[in-house]
Design the sequence.
């Protein structure tokens, strides 16, 4: 991995404020004050959240191997394959394994045995090489070559404890691209309303593959995978409504959270990582290490684990694959856009009555209003007064 620190040499604004750097001033001695002000205004526009430039989501040298790794996971390996790799240096891939699709306890057990057997074999090889012994076969020679001509024994022993399995996600990601057709246009429009970069619309590929019914084992829900505590800061979550599951309302919430993260942290790599790790944690990381590359390399916060460290790299990889989906998956027919308009309810109304009045069935009405919870669907509770009911355009 290249540990070279990367700086944005293209910036024309000094750390003290909107004033040209001295070397820039010398190159343009004839500029008047008004012109300098105009230049500063343009620069501030380019570095603002709503600006669009290549440096908005930088691919630092330090994370290039990770971005390449996740691109392969999203676009090369299907769910019937996985890789055993180094947890810290993701470009150290030891082997590709064939596995069964998850779906039964028996399949899970067989996969577990296959993965652990392969991991144990690699660990044995690394310890063998760390003891200064020659490779016993071509496979061990291939593993040795991953570490260069003269691998350091301590590095090999450490690597033996850092072997991780990652299942491929190509088929899941492809389905996510197809599903995204229903929401992507509206999500980008909402992000523009909040003066945010529209490429943030690709973040749900990392969170949920655009499954609005997605749930995590930790309690996160919806395409933006809000946890209940964070979700309540931005949406309604109670016995009758859970707006985390509504793709449009959850997008408004995600936009507000991302904008707040950016306001507090100042860069999109930090703001996006904070979406997974929390803004408070990233503020502590920034205080200790400064910019994102140094945080990526050296931050050891107790909750800054594999997922948080890789979250920004995954976003960059997902954005690249999703924006160029036909390059990776061939021609795709995306789901039709989730059109509709809203009416505000002036009273508490049973969902079945609304469906009958509108000439719709309850399932169709629920599909357009995913935030309505089971008690409303069963008729035990009414749709609340003031709720903005989304209905099909026809």
Sequence:
């Amino acid at each position: 991995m290249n540990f070279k620190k990367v700086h944005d040499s293209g910036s024309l604004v000094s750390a003290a404020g909107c004033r040209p750097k001295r070397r820039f001033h010398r190159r343009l001695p004839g500029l008047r004050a008004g012109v300098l002000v105009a230049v500063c205004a343009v620069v501030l526009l380019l570095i603002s959240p709503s600006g669009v430039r290549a440096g908005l989501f930088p691919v630092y040298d330090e994370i290039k191997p990770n971005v390449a790794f996740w691109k392969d996971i999203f676009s090369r390996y299907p769910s019937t394959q996985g890789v055993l790799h180094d947890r810290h240096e993701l470009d150290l891939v030891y082997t590709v394994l064939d596995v069964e699709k998850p779906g039964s306890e028996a399949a899970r057990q067989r996969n577990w045995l296959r993965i652990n057997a392969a991991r144990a074999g690699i660990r044995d090889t690394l310890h063998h090489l760390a003891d200064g012994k020659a490779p016993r076969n071509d496979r061990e020679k291939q593993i040795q070559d991953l570490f260069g001509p003269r691998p350091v024994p301590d590095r090999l022993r450490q690597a033996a404890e850092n072997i991780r399995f990652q299942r491929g996600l190509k088929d899941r990601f492809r389905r996510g691209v197809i599903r995204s057709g229903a929401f992507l246009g509206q999500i980008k429009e909402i992000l523009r309303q909040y003066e945010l970069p529209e490429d943030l619309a690709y973040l749900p590929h990392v969170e949920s593959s655009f499954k609005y019914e997605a749930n995590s084992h930790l309690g996160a829900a919806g395409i933006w995978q809000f946890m209940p505590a964070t979700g309540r800061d931005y949406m309604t979550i109670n016995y009758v409504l859970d707006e985390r599951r509504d793709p449009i309302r959850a997008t408004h919430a995600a936009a507000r959270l991302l904008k707040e993260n950016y306001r507090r942290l100042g860069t999109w790599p930090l703001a996006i990582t904070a979406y997974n790790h929390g803004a408070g944690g990233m503020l502590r990381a920034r205080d200790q290490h400064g910019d994102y590359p140094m945080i990526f390399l050296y931050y050891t916060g107790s909750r800054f684990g594999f997922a948080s460290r890789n979250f920004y790299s995954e976003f960059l990889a997902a954005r690249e694959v999703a924006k160029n989906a036909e390059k990776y998956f061939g021609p795709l027919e995306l789901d039709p856009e989730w059109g509709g308009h809203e009416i505000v309810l002036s009273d508490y109304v049973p969902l079945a009555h609304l469906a009958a009045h509108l000439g719709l069935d309850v399932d169709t009405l629920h599909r357009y209003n995913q935030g309505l919870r089971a008690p409303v669907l069963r008729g035990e509770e009414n749709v609340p007064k003031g709720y903005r009911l989304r209905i099909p355009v026809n």
About this structure: The CA atoms of residues 285 and 299 lie 6 Å apart. The radius of gyration is 25 Å.
